[in-house]
């Protein structure tokens, strides 16, 4: 399980730490848990509103490239305060601990690239099953992901037919195909089982706008229920309030769009 420290390349002690949002735990229950998955126990963090007996809508929160650190845990707490059971699994736990790396390129080459997409998608299925047994409503299953997790959110929307909606924050859309990552979002645009909202920054040097347009075209060709919003003044990781990349206006708008997307796609049909 990752510790409370931020990754070495995005330290909490940075000059931008003052922008980091800390959500209070009053009126919610938040804790570390363990989820059985593929013969192992996967560490996870969850948060839920306190004192609610009805089954809750579930949001699987898919980590940044840095793992389940304090920012991801805080996002779970924010969702809990909105009435969700939010669960963030440690999806690298078999391969290693992202806190052991001090730069992104080494983290990617030595750890992230060794995590198979198929393993991740199966682990997320087990998270959904755990949530259904622990106060979650399996008929209101949602997912959101950030950075590395944004890409996975697109893939999961094509993987799990029980998913009701997903929101992908600045997840890569195209890329080289490998044994561990045989498909990218652009390849599964016509296979989405659930509506997906993509949130991107026009100033994101790691996700060029031509790849966003390629994804839009693939979604249109596949008649997919999806929408991509591009914030003109935002770069990559614009929701990461603990980093210099944080763009408050875009982050707040994206958060409200996400909540509406979830609500619209879990509303009971009359």
The geometry reads as globular
Distance between the termini: 43 Å
Largest sheet: 8 strands, mixed
* CATH-assigned fold name: Rossmann fold
Taking pLDDT < 50 over at least 5 consecutive residues as the criterion, the unreliable ranges are 1-16
Q: Main sheet: which strands, in order across?
A: 1-2-4-3-5-6-7-8
- CATH architecture descriptor text: 3-Layer(aba) Sandwich
Rg over CA atoms: 17 Å
Instruction: Report the total helices.
Output: 6
Overall residue-averaged pLDDT value: 93
State the name of the first-level CATH class.
Answer: Alpha Beta
Bin the helical content: 25-40%
Structural class: alpha/beta
Query: Beta fraction of the residues?
Result: 15-25%
* Whole-number count of domains: 1
Write the element-wise H/E pattern from the N-terminal end onward.
EEEHEHHEHEEHEH
Number of strands: 8
The CATH superfamily is known as Alpha/Beta hydrolase fold, catalytic domain
């Amino acid at each position: 399980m990752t510790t409370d420290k931020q990754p070495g390349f995005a330290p909490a002690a940075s000059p931008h730490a003052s922008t980091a949002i800390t959500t209070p735990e009053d009126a919610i229950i938040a804790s570390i848990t363990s989820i059985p998955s593929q013969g192992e126990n996967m560490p996870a963090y969850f948060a839920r509103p306190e004192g609610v007996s009805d089954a809750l809508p579930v949001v699987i929160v898919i980590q940044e490239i840095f793992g389940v650190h304090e920012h991801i845990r805080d996002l779970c707490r924010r969702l809990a305060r909105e009435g969700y059971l939010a669960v963030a699994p440690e999806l690298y736990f078999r391969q290693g601990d992202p806190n052991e790396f001090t730069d992104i390129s080494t983290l990617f080459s030595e750890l992230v690239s060794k995590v198979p997409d198929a393993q991740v998608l199966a682990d997320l299925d087990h998270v959904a099953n755990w949530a259904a047994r622990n106060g979650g409503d399996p008929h209101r299953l949602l997912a959101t992901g950030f950075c590395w997790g944004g890409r996975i959110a697109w893939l999961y929307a094509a993987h799990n037919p029980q998913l009701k909606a997903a929101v992908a924050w600045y997840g890569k859309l195209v890329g080289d195909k490998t044994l561990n990552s045989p498909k990218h979002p652009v390849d599964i645009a016509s296979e989405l089982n659930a509506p997906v909202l993509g949130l991107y920054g026009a100033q994101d040097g790691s996700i060029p706008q031509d790849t966003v347009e390629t994804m839009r075209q693939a979604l249109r060709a596949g008649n997919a229920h999806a929408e991509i919003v591009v914030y003109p003044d935002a770069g990559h990781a614009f929701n990461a309030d603990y980093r210099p990349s944080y763009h408050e206006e875009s982050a707040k708008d994206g958060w409200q769009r996400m909540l509406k997307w979830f609500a619209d796609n879990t509303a009971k049909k009359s």
